Amino acid sequence: AAVRAAVDDCDFVSRLGDGTLERERFQQYLAQDAVYLEHYARVLAHASALAPSVEEQVFWSRSATSALAEEAELHRSHVGTCRVVQSAATRNYTSHLLASAAGGSYGEVVAALLPCFWLYADVGSRLVGQSHAQHPYADWLAAYGDPAFEQATREAVDIVDRAASVADPVLRERMREAFA
Fold first, then answer.
1. Residue 60 CB partners (closer than 8 Å, separation 6+)
2. N or C: which end of the chain has fewer CB within 10 A?
3. CB 171 within 8 A of CB 109
4. Which residue from 179, 77, 130 is spatially nearest to 33, judged by alpha carbons?
5. 178-to-18, 59, 107 alpha-carbon distances in Å
6. Residues 51-70: tens digit of each pLDDT
7. Long-range CB contacts (< 8 A, 24+ apart) of 166-170?
8. Measured between alpha carbons, how far is residue 130 from residues 11, 15, 125, 147 in Å?
9. Are 106 and 51 a contacting pair, CB within 8 Å?
10. What is the pLDDT of residues 114-127, one digit of tens each?
């Protein structure tokens, strides 16, 4: 609830939704997100390799492909393909994900991946209603407000819940930490 309230109070998010966010600020965000997605896709692929079932393996593999193909294309359509220096915030987040993948169990890895799904689906579903034909970020709103993305997020939540349900208390706490 505290994270959701902070997101709701975030000037960037409210201005993204109503279309008043400065183009340069949006492009800076997308450039960092494109860097992030490269690392995120690697961790999604790692989750696929660790998955205990074929269904989960396929889910994480498709998610990695989507991050590299669909989401990254959305970013390229706004900022092109120039190389970007990773910001400290992006480096911290990607380092957390990569560390989770390097040393964590399947449960920890998928718990670390879940916030990106869940937060983007939540924000996207709430902001998509503000979209209109002249909205400067209508494609972003449509991508993350898409019912298919919401369904993928529900699948990710279910997978993490299943992993937590079979984890011992120590692993569940590590999953909570990876998620937070």
1. 44, 45, 47, 48, 51, 110
2. N
3. no
4. 77
5. 32, 20, 9
6. 999 999 999 999 999 988 87
7. 167/107
8. 15, 11, 10, 16
9. yes
10. 999 999 999 999 99
